[in-house]
Amino acid sequence: xxxxxxxxxxxxxxxxxxxxxxxxxxxxxxxxxxxxxxxxxxxxxxxxxxxxxxxxxxxxxxxxxxxxxxxxxxxxxxxxxxxxxxxxxxxxxxxxxxxxxxxxxxxxxxxxxxxxxxxxxxxxxxxxxxxxxxxxxxxxxxxxxxxxxxxxxxxxxxxxxxxxxxxxxxxxxxxxxxxxxxxxxxxxxxxxxxxxxxxxxxxxxxxxxxxxxxxxxxxxxxxxxxxxxxxxxxxxxxxxxxxxxxxxxxxxxxxxxxxxxxxxxxxxxxxxxxxxxx
Length: 278
What we know:
The protein has helices at residues 24-34, 53-62, 77-90, 114-142, 167-187, 206-213, 247-258, and strands at residues 12-16, 38-43, 47-48, 51-52, 67-71, 96-99, 145-150, 192-199, 269-272. The protein is an alpha/beta fold.
């Protein structure tokens, strides 16, 4: 029996939420490029704190692949449609879509206001829906495609050590799982797969990016510390593996789902949490 390949040679991929230097989006984009894909990296905030979309393009090009940097608000249909058109015009038909972009707003149901509710739902749920819808027609015509959407273990259950205040975020991410299952049912006959990644804790700078989104635009001093940790030791006794994931570990799981090694997997949620939900 031959071993299925993780190669993405000749593929064109879109990865949203890819501007961050330590982000999952960057790690996924680089893993795809190393596997042979040309990658469009997309984000709404492209040059703040550690986020530099142009730098991500240069990293991909150094790996010998083509790349585009596209600023896009995924909650706006016109911007999403323009993103996909530009990728198709400059890189070619989209083979792989990774909806990694997301936002977190904390607060109990009583604490959350309507504005925060709208922001979370618009980015996490509506944005995922719009990006999927924008690539589906072309994938159906070509009878080939692969969609990987990001949810969260919070969408499945409250993980050990959780506190109140994640209900709206969890609801938006649960919606992502249900949309993905629907896509798998609707698109399987067109040879299009759709799956979900549900991460636990990942060592990124998402907390800092959320601060920026809330209006704190002053550059955090912690960015000067290359050993900075978003979680510290708080997860040591909660997660069986004893630590948060590195972005590269998440990228490996996404690469698997994007490759022919996962050719018979669709409509599934792959939990990447170090055993937190076990």
